[in-house]
Amino acid sequence: MNQKKIIIAIDGYSSSGKSTLAKAISKKLKYKYIDTGAMYRAIALLAIREKIFNSNLWNVQNFIHILKHINLKFKWNKKLNTTDIYLNEENIQSEIRSLKVTKKVSFIAQIPEIREKLTIMQRNIGKYKGIVMDGRDIGNYVFPKSELKIFMKGSIEVRSYRRYEDLKKKGENISYEEVKKNIIYRDLMDTSRKISPLKKSVDSIEINNTFMSIEKQLNLIFQLIKKNHHNI
């Protein structure tokens, strides 16, 4: 059977369940899953390590210079059945989800030079199709010609609770209110930045998963794929 591979772009708000859905789709289709948020988090982690935030004189140029020499890669983790992100050959998957990285990632995502570098990387990964990519501006900006575009949203309470539970599982000492505050802040940063802000593209299918199980979301996606791309 001739499998015509496509690009599936999943955009949406912070903690709207993008990566859960993207991972599930990629498993079922045996597609490559690319978490663009992880790429921005990797850069935020690097900036923290380089003590970029310790100075009042935030110097983009100095940091951009460091970026020239970085290597970001996704590798399959056989043990956990997931994709891990590597920064210069070091597996940083567990570190990028920490609260200190979460607090800086929206700031990092505002910087044009960083967005430009990561967009080039993302487009290179998607050259051969057969990928599910999630982020904030995939359908609008990174792959405007992607064959299926999903836009995810959910109530602020449900999204905050999801993130709160995730962080608690990882042993972070944090209150629900603090998590909610961070998500409200990230929504504002994501939707108001000048370069490729988070917004639903005209040809996106919106999923509000406040009260929707992952099974229902998957069923909906595969109905859409069947309807539009019979030979997948």
Side-by-side strand order of the widest sheet: 2-6-1-7-8
Q: Could you tell me the CATH topology label.
A: Rossmann fold
Helix content, binned percent = 40-55%
Low-confidence stretches: none
CATH architectural grouping: 3-Layer(aba) Sandwich
Description:
This protein is 47% helix and 17% strand. By secondary structure, the protein is of the alpha/beta class. The termini are close together.
What is this structure, in a nutshell?
This protein is an alpha/beta fold and 232 residues long.
Topology, element by element:
Layout: E1 7-12, H1 18-29, E2 32-35, H2 36-49, H3 60-67, E3 72-77, E4 82-87, E5 90-91, H4 99-108, H5 112-125, E6 131-135, H6 138-142, E7 148-153, H7 156-169, H8 176-192, E8 205-208, H9 214-228
Parallel strand pairs: 1-6, 1-7, 2-6, 7-8
Antiparallel strand pairs: 3-4, 4-5
Keywords:
Rossmann fold, 47% helix, 9 helices, single chain, alpha/beta, 232 residues, five-stranded parallel β-sheet
